């Protein structure tokens, strides 16, 4: 009776983790900013072209945040979507004589489909090579426009018709600025919703580690293609507006040069924040505007500013402002004054209303491995390994360096190419499935060399693991429908309890790269646990940790595994630790099983002692 | 939860209404507050027609000067490619504009008004041309846009000029659509469209070299007036002689492939629609690869720099121009060169680009003078339409404008490089 | 037959330019993981400098080139120290790319203000760029021969530097493994700066030998830069010889596709072919894919 409220509170409330809300502080600021420009558009109508260009570039920048900022796909082909918007707008307004109500959905839809196609190379190539592949797409896109004369007017181009909405004609100038602002608001809202939702989280995850994202069960291939689709569709909205400001569409303007400028603008502004898209657009559009009086030196000023800006704000303007803001905050606040209002738990998080339902008495995670083999060049790293693990058991996998333990793991999870053999999880054959589907079938894994997502905080790692539990669709996510919020909130509660269980709750807001090594290991485990796996594959969880800390962590993992009745397969060098937790140990040497039995049996096996324990 | 969704929908509904509402608001009240938006142009057009009737009484006592015009100056704007690969043309045009300005101002201006102009770079990018146009018109309040270069760029900016009642004067832009007086009543030019130039070329070719054994190749740019260039030739009397059509891109580094194709098709005459540097490179590579033909350069290729760059290889090359050779010996041309060199021009800048801007300047001076003390857009246009048999000192044949025709010069002049200079061969019309 | 040889030769001459610029790009990328967007403009300025010393300062042809190369090297040294160096320690690829774009814009405008936009002829002794020899039906331009020889000499010198000198060893060590190289006591900043200078000199040679071919004009090396970039990727971007081979291949591809492909596709076809190659061999034609993904 002493403190009933405290007892009943959830981990989330104790750690003061804010719940996802429909509108955040940023939304209000953004809304106010846009409203301000909206109201001033009439007063400063003589700047409407530059304001328009800024808004268009901000929209294109926001669309590029999807592709590049979040999903990390370096594209030089983004103008193809802008061009699609421009020329569709030209055709719809002149041939069909329809207005924006037709232009916008068609432009978005066509560019979305185009994006799905353009995104394909991203499955094969990365970074520079992707930049070139998309460069090629943009290059070919312009050539197509040149030759497809009915659509684009060829080299001569095509005029753009009236600015209309549902039959009402508008003048350009300030009115177009206002329409553009409304579209910018919608675009930013949608992109912002992705940033706060599962799709954005998944994109961020695949940007920072594709391997780990796959292991968490995220459909990386689809996510990559989707980012081009959505990014493309939003860029086409910018294109429609571009068509109406320019009023004349000429293919040669939509080449690679424009692609480079939009990417440059976003990087200058800050590629992870919507504000970055705005600041980048302001930079590239207003610097020339402000240097009109000295226009002879405009290029010099532009280049010079770019150099200086990159020196003082290498992470973009947003990064610089955030850094400044933090410095100011630190100056103001007394460093000692800030105390954590963190309240320790009183009951086990496993009994909380969010984790209790996951409890199961039905053991799962029986794994059959048959003739697993992996060869690199001529070297057989894994050479015909077979074993069966019963459901719910803890199995150790030991062996000297190069014995093929991690390779065997990778063969089971699908992280290595060219693996042969059969893997059957809970009676289901998973050998032919892609990585993320194996994960979805119930394989949860950690990595020997930590494979976390930099830039994501601890809580987000847990949420990534919970992604499969969220059923809301991506369209609903775009508009932040009520059920999206409901599921997100629920996931936050679950994640918080999970963090609490692994003693990570007080670090929920830390970026993983700022955490000490031991905690990073736990984050890796949390991500795997959150997927509610049938079997948990732990790759040297104790490596680099003091034994006490390792044992503590293993205890927590085992508790959780027991809670959900999952099996555990653990690779470890620390024989003492393995022997302490495992029901059974398999010993690998030179890619082959040399022993398989209880810890006692194995540690007494002569072959094992000779190959491994003796040294 | 649901209520928040409704809140959001409500916000958008309100916003949408405000958008529409404010937009309409601004259109009616805004034009009085700021001199922008299309509604203003229609109102001024309307007032233009009504004022014609009453102008005779009103103008004498009270004259409302056009935007950009004060008692002591007239302001112009000019959007030029000052950077990028057309920068040379921009520099040449601006030099000729400066020469014109200084000539007029040193003579005391026109009706006591000095000429001033602002140049802005557009790097041949229509987006910049459009914002430059707004800057000129709405921020600086220029009287007219003068001597801008570029068809593609002007295509985008011209609607803005027209809507804001801003004359477009003597640009180097040759798309057919510009010359329609009904659509672009404020557009004046001394530069016939690209279409007319190649048509004139085809006619000249047949007249002077017949049709026997003649095979023609065309190389045009894949851009705004490229197709019209080809069409113009096809519509000429030599249209049937066309055997090979090639295009080039602005970023080409070699014309070898096109030249090899011309060799294959055995052409006897090649029309090269490029700038002077590209033409010189074309001549060089044609010599390297052994293309043995007569070479015909378009307007852009005719400069002293072509000869400087290509050297002996330019000897005998033809030029299809709309204007006499910049290096020729005529009073107007001598005055032009004298003024240009006095202003610090290099030999290479004696070109069609600068001569066109210079000649436009002569007509501009005449138009401003004729428009009289009370300079309005209407009086200016009306004055321009009365110009007949205007003498340019032999740079062009006497120029004629009318209410139906704002293109003063319809000449196609054939030049040839002889003894290291462009010489005029014949003056004809399309 | 002669037709084929002629086309192949023309393609090869373009290919030399792509190959040299590709080499210059790969060199810097391989050792320092930096993509230098200013490479084309820097090469162009070298060409202008050689012209300026010869035509406006009346230096002999060779001395003018020497002065131009010294200025290129020194200028690059300063540019690297002032702009790129401060960013290297951040270990982020993108700011440096943006930095080189800024440098590109700045230098291009310096060049424009200095020399203007009008194209200039770069005079070579005896005007040998205007001499064409007829060998049977095959036509050989004397300057193209000079271009070919210069390319081979440049490649040999670069090959020598990379394989035989301390700088080359350092470059190789850094290309293999940055951390290991640091442990071996090789100074990253020294290797990096001399790689930059070497790369700029290769670019400078390209800018100068192609000046008579393309004329000296605003941005005349920019397209060569883009093609060199494509060539470098075609070659794998991590292989110096791959970059060179990629350049020559691209030159040939262009020459033959533009000759035989329908006019509508001619311009895009080489890029499409590179694109397809990239999809089939994601790591370029001349570098082997890494064995397996380490996790």
Descriptive account of the structure:
The complex is a heterotrimer of chains A (615), B (430) and C (295). Chain A is of the alpha/beta class and 615 residues long. In chain A, the strands form four sheets. A six-stranded mixed beta sheet of chain A has the order 10-11-12-7-13-14, with helices on both faces. Chain A has a four-stranded antiparallel beta sheet with strand order 6-5-8-9. Chain A has a two-stranded antiparallel ribbon with strand order 1-4. The N and C termini of chain A lie far apart (58 Å). By secondary structure, chain B is of the alpha/beta class. Chain B has two domains: 73-192 and 329-410, Rossmann fold (3-Layer(aba) Sandwich), CATH 3.40.50; 195-321, Response regulator (Rossmann fold, 3-Layer(aba) Sandwich). Chain B contains 13 helices and twelve strands. Chain C has a two-stranded antiparallel ribbon. Chain C is globular and about 60 Å long. Classes of the chains: A alpha/beta (615), B alpha/beta (430), C mainly alpha (295). Chains A and B meet through helix 4, helix 10, helix 13 and helix 22 of A and helix 1, strand 2, helix 4, helix 5 and helix 7 of B.
**Mean of residue pLDDT values of chain C:** 89
CATH architecture of the largest domain in chain A: 3-Layer(aba) Sandwich
Spans of at least 5 consecutive residues with low confidence of chain C: 291-295
The number of domains of chain C is 1
Biggest beta-sheet profile of chain A: 6 strands, mixed
- Most residues in contact: chain pair: A-B, 51 and 54 residues
How many E strands of chain C? 2
- As a whole number of angstroms, the C-alpha radius of gyration of chain C is 19 Å
Number of helices of chain A: 27
